[in-house]
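Final report, Chapter 2: Outcomes

The project's central promise was a pipeline that accepts a single protein chain and returns its three-dimensional structure in a standardized token representation, suitable for archiving and comparison. That pipeline is now operational. To close this chapter, we reproduce one record exactly as it appears in the project archive, with the input sequence first and the structure output second.
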Amino acid sequence: MSKQTNRGKEAKDDISFGTEARLTFKEALSDLHYLLSRNYSEKNALQAVGTRYKLTQRQLRAIQSMAASEEQLTVVKSKAVTIDRLMGADLVFDGFNVLILLETLFSNAYLFKGLDGCYRDLSSVHGTYKRVSQTTLALDCVASFYKRHKIGNIIWIFDKPVSNSGRIKKMIEELSHKENLNWSVILENNADQAIIDQQKITVSSDAYIIRNCSHWFNFIGYLIEQEKIPATVFSVES
């Protein structure tokens, strides 16, 4: 499995998501939220907002990750659990989602705080997962969190069709054995549905998953906001 230097950041990101962009994003996100809450299709709403505010494709991807309708926000909020629910609990981790977000965080690339409180990034596996310099640090972070909060079990679920999923499975299993962690790793052809079907507390920032699982925990949000792990965050909050 080849290894890159870092995860997620592009040369123009400091301009696209800099201080001057924040006001534009705040207005654009407000408009997108309004349209989605009135049942406009996401495609049409994005097109309208992107045209009005002259957003680049990368900015559009970012604002899409931050947006939600009022109904969606209500659903997500109703399913969120707090840290005190995790002691002794079994968690299911959305494998690539969590791992890539942590790699992005530790690469100092931009994370985008959505209206639902979730942090998301602009990285994607495109059918192939490649390790980066921060992969080991990301897994060590989860292991430390697991021990510190006395979590019962973690079930990692990864997309089987993604190239190198077998290798990251082996890497996690080796760490689990070395550190005596009660972890298991599963490869699934339809990982999203498999995660939802577990009916356990889910760790993910994937919008579809957190809206459809039984309960979810905002792991990345907790690390940034409560444990104060340094992060490069783009948010429209003042």
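Archive annotation: The chain has a mean pLDDT of 95.
This record, like all others produced under the grant, will remain available to the consortium after the project formally closes.
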